[in-house]
């Protein structure tokens, strides 16, 4: 399913544009206090989403399964919750959005492990 891989790349590029803009603003203002939010927007948003996209592009049969769509949806939700959550926590506010976002990121990665394992077993069976 090409649409899932393409969606991953759109989200990744959006996170990349936002994360790099944030980096430039931090560098220009000499205020690096939100560096953890910037780091994780780039690493979970740009890098991880792009890696999910690459995997689903190279494994279209796996990408066609509903669990793959659920995994990507959860990963997107985790970034949307975690990054503002880190900003809120760093500014002294509630840690709950960051905690929920982090748990969703982990669940999404565990789902990805299960998805890649079943893909691996299928490939091994066909070898
Ligand atoms: C236009 C592009 C970017 C600019 C201008 C930029 C700028 C910055 C700045 C000013 C900091 C704070 C450094 C410090 O406080 O020591 C930082 C930290 C960081 N950036 Fe970027 N960044 C950019 C892109 C990226 C990308 C694409 C990634 C990852 C794929 C990334 C990952 C990180 C990480 C992990 C840190 C935290 C480093 C640490 O705390 O040791 N950045 N960045
Ligand atoms: C559930 C997801 C994640 C959580 C909850 C998490 C949490 C954290 C925390 C609490 C720190 C220390 C921040 C500080 O000292 O201010 C950190 C640092 C860091 N993490 Fe993560 N992380 C996650 C995912 C990732 C991923 C997927 C990557 C890379 C692909 C990554 C790369 C880094 C790097 C490079 C640093 C050091 C830069 C910094 O201090 O900002 N993290 N992370």
From TrEMBL:
Sorted alphabetically, which Gene3D superfamilies does this protein's record hold? Answer: Cytochrome c oxidase-like, subunit I domain (1.20.210.10)
Q: What is this protein called?
A: Uncharacterized protein
Q: Which organism is it from?
A: Martelella endophytica
Highest taxon in the source lineage: Bacteria
Q: Keyword Transmembrane helix, does the record have it?
A: yes
Leader sequence range is: 1-27
Question: ATP-binding: is it a keyword of this entry?
Answer: no
**Which residues span the membrane?**
37-55, 67-92, 98-121
State the UniProt keywords alphabetically.
Answer: Membrane, Signal, Transmembrane, Transmembrane helix
> What InterPro entries does the annotation carry?
Cyt_c_oxase-like_su1_sf
